User: Fold these one by one.
Assistant:
Number 1:
Amino acid sequence: MIYTDKKKYSDILNESVSYLEQRGYENIKADTDGYETPKSFNKKGSDITITPDIVAEKEGRKHYFELSLKSDKPRLLKSKWLFLNTLSALKSSKFRLITTKGHYKFTNEMLSDINLNDKKLIKI
């Protein structure tokens, strides 16, 4: 989810954090109140900052989670997903997308556009 949608979908973000806690994830960092904010990444030469929605650990492995919700800026969202997917591959981590009812088609189309069709969605 991009920064402009953060307030709009804060309830889904909190629901996703609860879901991950129930599944045994630890050291959860989320871009919401009550949790430590995950590490942000800055694009050199511009003012763009990328912050993962949720970062957690399970069985000693770091997992990056992104909420996939309809957005007014799909190009920015695609760039964020590609960056986090590449980052997770470099660091031997996992990158997963969390989505909810009403956003499945949008998510699948976005994944198809950036050739990440192999990603399995977490449906809440």
Number 2:
Amino acid sequence: MGPGIRVSDRGAIRVLTIDNPAKRNAFSGAMAPTLLEELDRADADPAVRAIVVTGSGGCFSSGHDLQEVMETPETAGDPLANAAFSRPSEILTPVIGAIDGPAYAAGFILALNCDLRVATPGARFCAVGAAIGLVPVGGQLSRLLDLVGYPVAYRWLATAVPFGAEEALQCGFVMRIADRPEALDGAIALAESIAAVSPAVVAAVKAGLTHTVRHGTDAGRGAEPLLAALVRDLPDGSEGVNSFLERRPPAYPNRPKDLQDRIAQVLA
């Protein structure tokens, strides 16, 4: 079996595994378009309540296959060619990165655009753009600033020096360092805790936070009652209250297929 994106399900959690261990899980051939397709397919499936992205063989991803970049250098900064790496931040389904070993270049961009990141002690991160003469793209000049602040973002981007899991944790880039050899179990546990609550509320949370980051605090404050009213018309609220009163775990329905469109309408 050649390089590719492996897909598996653990209950309501979709696991996407970057699998090209011979090249430290570099993206080559159709791997990036396939990842984009699988992220969109998972997001369109109401039964998928969380997505975990990981790599095989103790490595997340070393980025693009440099041999292919040399042959087609125009793809290095092409938004369409790199759409997969920023897609996690654009979909409603929560995406958790399980980071083992290196997450460099496009692998760093992919990790950056996940909602949450779990790493192992041996994880390494690097925004390589300045070292190879390429302007950092894919959220490195925008999303990264919101996550870690200007001094840290500037240092990481302007020096292109790799940094480890402990620094990533201290700066808030990584939320947890797993105490196991692989980050996948920790990411799955985190995904399960998200999958257990209301999918509609989780979607509204991601949409509301993203709206605030893009448009400012006042816009985010204005979006809160709109999103609350939208979700109030769904059965999640009554199920949550009833389950609490009946002292049982809630059984939330999958989010409506058109929820993304409805959220987009109220936030327009």
